[in-house]
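G., the chain you wanted modeled:
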Amino acid sequence: MSDQTAKRSDQAPHLSGLLSPDGLRAAVQSGEITTVMLAVPDMMGRLKGKRLSASVFLDRMLSKAEACSYILATDVDMTPLEGFDLTGWNDGYGDLSVIPSQDTIRVLPYLPGAALVHADVADEDGELLEIAPRHMLRTQLDKLAALGLEARVGLESEFVLYQGSPLQAHTTGYRGLQPVTFHNLDYALDHPPALTDFFQHLQDALHGAGTPVESAKTEGAAGQLEIAFPYGPAMKACDAYTVYKHAVRHIAQRRGMTPTFMAAPQTGVGSGLHIHLSLLNVADYRNTFATRPNEEELPETMQRAIAGLISAMPHLAPLYAPHANSYKRYNPHSFAPTRFTWGYDNRSCAIRVTGHDTGRHLEVRLPGADANPYLALAATLAAIHHGLTTQPELPPHTTGDAYQARDALPLPRDLVEALADFDDSKTALAAFGERVVRHYARAAQVEIDEHRRRVTDVELQRGFDRA
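Predicted structure as tokens:
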């Protein structure tokens, strides 16, 4: 490279963050963006879509594209399944309209030349699909808006990072994996160099993608990490979260590591997706959960929100704990809840009142790392709306060890119990409608059936030569 070329390269603006459609067009014309990844969040919260030529996207697909309808009617293995009203073999798995959300165009610094665009999906009549995760969240946000309220959300994510590539992990049947740290390094700042480099690469990449990290730390299990994001609008928080998971997987693999967002990746280890949330009054953008210094009594809006969460969340578990493995995270003294309780700054509760004064907010600790953020937040907001509009009774707050709160309703023991409460729930039907409940009940049943037919390692260990 000549000195002049190097000088021009140094002086060229570095593309980062969110782009407008005009900004994308300019980046494509300059050659900085060559590929657009058009992405629909699926039922598991994964980004599904196509890599498109950036010029083709601008010429023909900036307003609408198409994708097979089965992307919203599969299991985790992307298996086409019967039993969904949306689509099936009976109608040949036709296409859905994919509508790019033009305020979500973002650069992906860890994939040079690529931009990502989130999209909504619509049926042949142009109606947005009510079962699509993004639209389910939007519906709950609209319900709150009708009450003059707007949600502000900060997500806190945990995952476990292992040594070795995903291919190596798959080859071993995901057994005997070695975490990147071997001890409890919770709050530690003396990380191994490889982990320090991973943290830095991830934080730089997310900042460049317009998804800045508020904090990053190691957690209480070997190889477990926690990434927290700043407060912001709810939909943007969930869109950013899907970018974060995409970046984690890509950067880890590039460094010979494998992450997992399972709720319970091994016995005794649980990873959560905690939702920090407050409600703003849209008239003056005041936090309706705010308290005055040293004030103990919570505002009425916050009391009703908590009452709604305690009353409705038991009926919505398949939306925030969607897998059989999800329920293996809920163990006593694990920092994951086991009962529907609430308390002040109490991490043994399902709902934690935290923050101070104007920063007072709720932390919902029910979702695991495997939760779809759109669905988990939609369930949370639906429960809060239930509390604000039907005003269920607020139970007493829990002090001390919430795992011993015998008067509080226990969480479902498994997905079977959760499905029974969801599928037959007037609360779920009122919040989401029959079509949505039926769709996600079918997804839960598929998961249950798949686990029922599998012989597990535990069964072999306990029964092979003892039965």
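The longest helix spans residues 234-254.

Shout if anything looks off.
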